[in-house]
Sequence to fold (233 residues):
Amino acid sequence: MQYNEDVKLNVFLSIIDYRLSKNSFSRPQEQVRLLVKKLHGLISGKLDTLIDIGGGWPPQYKPLLFPLTKKYINLEIKKGIGVDLVGSVYDIPMPKLSVDIVTLFMVLEHLSEPKAALVEVARVLKKGGYVAITTVQYWHTHNHPSDYLRYTKAGLEYYCKEAGLQVVDIWSQGGPFLVIFHAMELNMTGNWRTIFSILFYRLFDWLDWVVYKHNDTREHSDSVGWSLIAKKL
Fold:
């Protein structure tokens, strides 16, 4: 009986937390929305093919991405709900120059060879095609042992350049206040983590906007992570 009550409380708190913070700046869903908006400004009409690498089981962002493309493909490493293509980011089972947009949402940190992955992405992209990426600079270790790397702005620009991709837009997912918030939140467990988020996320999000405009503008600065759009040269 106590277990059922704990589950009900957890679900109740999670719903409140989601409703209060779902559109806040550093949340992954908001960053994907922002990327889609920016991509709409770069393309005209729907493009032919989009590959969402590591989209999930089922694909979490398909409803947001579908307006960009006539054909959405969720590429995962194994079969599952909503998986359209099984394969590896290091060996994408698509012909050369066949894809208009590739997305890698919170995937790069889980790759031991990011340069090789981006080179393969560039191989399947048509000339003038785009890759959209979100990844972390600060985050706790997750999905151990497949969590390998953290990225700075300069690091992402370097890897893209090495793969023949030109960064056309890159922005921080949140500055020092949100880094502090997530450093505390992500090291809590259970309902305490959710309660902390309900009470303080919007405050830290607001402080980060007021003081830093959610941007990484200082010479030595902290960022929750990065979102970027790069183009195949």
In short: The beta strands are 47-53, 69-76, 85-86, 99-105, 125-136, 165-172, 225-232. The CA atoms of residues 112 and 148 lie 6 Å apart. Residues 2-22+30-232 form a domain with the Rossmann fold fold (CATH 3.40.50.150).
